[in-house]
């Protein structure tokens, strides 16, 4: 959020498919809250429901320097997938990806 992103949800996300798109929203009881370790629960203006445009898998490292375009299917919707375990540059790369897209 410090880089300009908005909060959908922290820790739990409600997902559903609507009109061929995967949508994400916060459960009502945690909407507008985000945990900051060592600081506490902070308020943030929530957004959503909002389309999911990218999935980042933090459990798998990216083996390729210039990876192929990957996708994952969730609730019948195909979403671009990025692998990102141990990628120190990931937050900066994702910000640019979301701003300008990925060249095929």
Automatic annotation (TrEMBL):
Superkingdom, natural source: Bacteria
Gene3D superfamilies xrefs: P-loop containing nucleotide triphosphate hydrolases (3.40.50.300)
InterPro entries, alphabetized: P-loop_NTPase
UniProt protein name: Hpr(Ser) kinase/phosphatase
Source organism of the structure: Gemmobacter lanyuensis
């Amino acid at each position: 959020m410090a880089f300009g992103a908005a909060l959908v949800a922290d820790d739990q996300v409600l997902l559903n498919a609507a009109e061929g798109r995967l949508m994400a929203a916060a459960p009502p009881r945690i909407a507008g809250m985000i945990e900051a370790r060592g600081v506490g629960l902070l308020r943030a203006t929530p957004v959503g429901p909002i389309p999911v445009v990218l999935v980042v898998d933090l459990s798998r490292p990216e083996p390729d320097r210039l990876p192929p375009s990957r996708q994952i299917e969730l609730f019948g919707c195909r979403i671009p997938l990025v692998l990102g375990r141990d990628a120190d540059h990931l937050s900066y790369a994702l910000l640019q990806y979301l701003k300008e897209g990925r060249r095929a």
